[in-house]
Amino acid sequence: KYTYNVGAYYDDKKFNLRLAYNWRSAFTRREIVQLGFARPEALPEIEAARGQLDLAARVNVNRNLRITFDAVNLTDTGTLRYLKYKELVNYVSLAGRKFNLGVAVSF
């Protein structure tokens, strides 16, 4: 239903840094989820609210060498889906944090 994004960015010729936080409120993912094969009962599937903080950093060591670092989901937020009531959990995903380190060389 609601979403917001907040970001901060710093950049000079040698170093740049970006922080970004994204949040989304709970929302209906599917209107109708059948509660068993060929049964008339159904409930909506709701995806719970979640927020995530990401970081990206770049260092230009010299004209030919750049080091990069990315961190995704620093808040270690998972995804939770439930059927109308939070007690009726339908799906859980805990992807965890992801880190990438890179080096770029130009000739």
Computed Rg = 20 Å
Briefly note the structural class of the backbone: mainly beta
- Give, in order, the helices and strands: EEEEEEEEE
The first-to-last residue Cα distance is 49 Å
Strand order of the largest sheet: 1-2-5-6-9
What is the beta-strand fraction? Answer: over 45%
Overall helicity: under 10%
User: Regions with pLDDT < 50 over 5+ consecutive residues?
Assistant: none
- The tally of helices reads 0
Shape: elongated
State the oligomer.
Answer: single chain
Q: How many strand elements?
A: 9
Mean pLDDT: 93
Largest sheet: 5 strands, antiparallel
Textual characterization of the structure:
This protein is an all-beta fold. 0% of the residues lie in helices and 67% in strands. It has no helices and 9 strands. It has strands at 3-11, 15-24, 27-34, 42-47, 50-62, 65-72, 79-83, 89-93, 98-105. The strands form 2 sheets. Strands 1-2-5-6-9 form a 5-stranded antiparallel β-sheet, with no helix packed on it. Strand 1 (3-11) and strand 2 form a beta hairpin. The protein is elongated, with a radius of gyration of 20 Å. The mean pLDDT is 93.
